[in-house]
Amino acid sequence: MTEPEVLRLPAVRLPAESDLAPLALASLRLTELKRLAEWGQGRSVNNDGELDPHDVEAGTKELGLGLDELLVGWAAAVDAELLTLKSDQAVAGPALAVLEQGTDQDKLDVWADIVDWDIETAYPADEPSEALPVLLMMLHLEPVVSFEDLVGTAVEMDGTGEDAADAVSYLMSRLLDLGVVLTDGELFQSTPLGQFGLSCWFGSVGVDAPVITDLAEASPVQVMEMAQVFEDDGEREAFVHEWIDAVGPSAAADELVTLASTGTPDDRSGAFALLQRVGAAAEDAVRSKLDDPSVRPHAINWLTEAGLSAPELTPAESSWLFADMLVAVLGPDDETQREAAAELGFEDPRSLDHIAGLADTTHPAAAEVLQALATHHPDPAVVKAARKATLQSRSV
Exposed, middle or buried by CB within 10 Å (0-12, 13-18, 19+), for 143? Predict the structure, then answer.
């Protein structure tokens, strides 16, 4: 049996853990739970770990909490090991010491445990919620999310009806107290600390949501994902060069050519775009892939554009390079292909010849590329050339 495919979200760049940990410690939720844990040491509990009724009453007064706030907070503190139950008494848990003396990573782990517990208990559902992961993905990936959109998603996926607004509102209040999100009226925005916490939660439910706190540890694919966040070209270029400097030009070149050799057409195109930023330091790494049939056309093209000695591209290699470029631009599905084809210009007079050459290439995606152009491109000449090439490839 094959392993099930893991859902993977784009990588997100975050500040260093030394910057995030103080934010976690300062969050309202962790501050309140820490205070509750310190108050709760030595309190009597029953066999179910519940507080003595007299202590419950005392706690609401001494801590200024409502009854539900106290009981929910007590359960969260025990779950996060801020408190440990021994026999008939609550004592300080190991997490309490971590908050005082642990490393930044350890402190963040304690906070993330609370995030996990709060998320799982804050969104009411009698059965596993289909909406909850999607709501949190919206917060994790989108710059700003409206309360209306969150409620609409909850209604659509969970059918919670009139209760949806209350359910989402309660979830967001917990996330606000944790420092996971900020709000401006009806709009919510995740914080860097929040993206760290959400990443941990996603990992606990089998979703890969990588966060990068040290750019030197980022893979080329993650760099490409994070670079897409920048709308300004100058900021994007500066970010890419920051990664190259963090990894080292030679090591960056090695990682990029390895990705080109093992990845998809989109990976190859992206890798060689980044190799242009590496510059002359990438020459040896690029030349090392001249024997790799899928990478050789890109390598020759890169060397030629860099003004370095390079073999001539054969017609077959030119067609492979053209097909790879089109696969990366057109995308994987019908909708993206329709949009991309409408924007894809072929101003070079040789473009129709390149399309014709796709009939003879061994590129595995050539047929799909031709079909996309024949179906979606607005230029009749391109459509005609793609259809003709399709017929010729089928007759071979």
Answer: exposed
| Closest CA relative to residue 153, chosen from 174, 173, 167 | 167
Q: Could you give the C-alpha distances from 385 to 95, 346, 349, in angstroms and in order?
A: 67, 12, 13
Our count of domains for the chain comes to 3
- Of 313, 340, 361, the residue at which a domain comes to its end is 313
Is the separation of the CB atoms in 176 and 183 below 8 Å? yes
Residue 55 has a CB neighbour count (10 Å cut-off) of 20
- At residue 345, the pLDDT reads 75
Q: Which of 260, 286, 313 is the last residue of a domain?
A: 313
For the record, the structure tokens of 40 come out as 């709760």
Radius of gyration of the chain (CA): 28
Specify whether 11 is located in the same domain as 102.
yes
Bridge partner residues of 51 (DSSP): 45
Would you state the pLDDT for residue 3? 41
Strands in 187-190's sheet, in edge-to-edge order, are 145-146, 187-190, 181-184
Q: How far is CA 213 from CA 350, 368, 392, in A?
A: 46, 39, 51
Distance, in Å, from the CA atom of 257 to the CA atom of 82, rounded to the nearest integer, reads 48
**Has residue 171 been placed in a domain?**
yes
Between CA 137 and CA 150 the distance in angstroms is 11
What does the pLDDT look like over 94-133, one tens digit per residue? 999 999 999 999 999 999 999 999 999 888 655 668 889 9
Place of tokens 């025990």: 78
Number of H helices, E strands in the chain: 21, 7
For the four alpha carbons of 301, 303, 307 and 312, in that order, the dihedral sign comes to negative
* Structural domain for 388, as ranges: 332-395
In this structure, which amino acid lies at residue 386? A
**Cα separation, 5 vs 22, whole angstroms:** 36
Segments in the chain below pLDDT 50: 1-4
